[in-house]
Write a structure and sequence with these properties.
This protein is of the alpha+beta class. It contains two helices and eight strands, in the order ααββββββββ. The relative contact order is 0.13. It comes from Halomonas alkalicola.
C-alpha cells in the first residue's frame, strides 16, 4: 500500500481591502445595496404617467364602444324574441319600453327603460288588455331612441309592416349605432351609417 500523504491547502495572502490576493474581487453591485436612485425613480414615474395618460382615453373609448354594443345586442334580442314569439304563437306580438312589470302604458320615447314583450296590439301604448310576456333589463348607460311614437309590432307572419323604424343608440364620446327594422321584421345594424351623437 502506498502511504497517504496529507493534502496541503494553499492560503493566499489577504490584501488591505480584505480580499484574498490571487482571487477576483466580487462584482461592484455585490458590495453596495441594491435599489433605485432618486433620478431613476423620477424617470420611472414619468414613464408610467405618460403611459397612463395615453391609455386612459383609449380605455374610455373602448368601454364606450362596449356599452353601445351591449345595448345594440339588448335591442336586437328583444326584437328577435318578439318576432319569434309572433311566428310561434301565430298572433300579434308588440314590444315597447315600460317603467316596470306593473306598468299600464308604454313610455314609447324612452327605450332606455325596461322593454316589455306584449301579447297583443298595445294600441296607442295602452297595456290594459295586454298580457306582458317578458320584461328585459333597462339600459346600462347609452341613450336609445326610436323614430316612431308607437310600439314595434309583429304580425303572425313575422312582418312588422307599418310598425317598423330605426333605433338610435348613442353612447359616450360620440360613439353610436343605428338599428333598422324593415317592413319584413328583419333587423340590420349598418356599419357605414352611424348616427351623430
Amino acid at each position: 500500500m502506498r502511504p497517504v500523504t496529507p493534502r496541503h491547502t494553499v492560503r493566499h495572502p489577504v490584501d488591505a481591502s480584505g480580499h484574498q490576493a490571487g482571487r477576483s474581487a466580487p462584482p461592484w453591485s455585490a458590495l453596495h445595496q441594491h435599489g433605485l436612485t432618486l433620478i431613476e425613480l423620477i424617470v420611472a414615474i414619468a414613464v408610467l404617467l405618460i403611459l397612463f395618460t395615453a391609455a386612459i382615453p383609449r380605455y374610455q373609448q373602448f368601454t364606450a364602444r362596449n356599452e353601445v354594443a351591449a345595448e345594440v345586442m339588448r335591442i336586437k334580442t328583444a326584437l328577435a324574441l318578439a318576432r319569434n314569439t309572433a311566428v310561434t304563437r301565430r298572433q300579434v306580438i308588440a314590444l315597447c319600453p315600460v317603467t316596470g312589470p306593473e306598468a299600464t302604458h308604454c313610455e314609447k320615447h324612452d327605450w332606455t327603460l325596461p322593454i316589455a314583450i306584449l301579447d297583443g296590439h298595445a294600441t296607442a301604448g295602452n297595456l290594459a288588455d295586454v298580457e306582458v310576456l317578458r320584461v328585459l333589463e333597462p339600459s346600462r348607460g347609452p341613450t336609445i331612441t326610436f323614430n316612431r311614437d308607437y310600439p314595434v309590432r309583429y304580425q303572425a307572419t313575422g312582418w312588422s309592416r307599418g310598425h317598423n323604424g330605426t333605433f338610435t343608440v348613442c353612447g359616450r364620446h360620440g360613439d353610436g349605432r343605428k338599428i333598422i327594422v324593415n317592413n319584413m321584421g328583419r333587423v340590420r345594424v349598418p356599419e357605414d351609417d352611424r348616427p351623430e351623437c
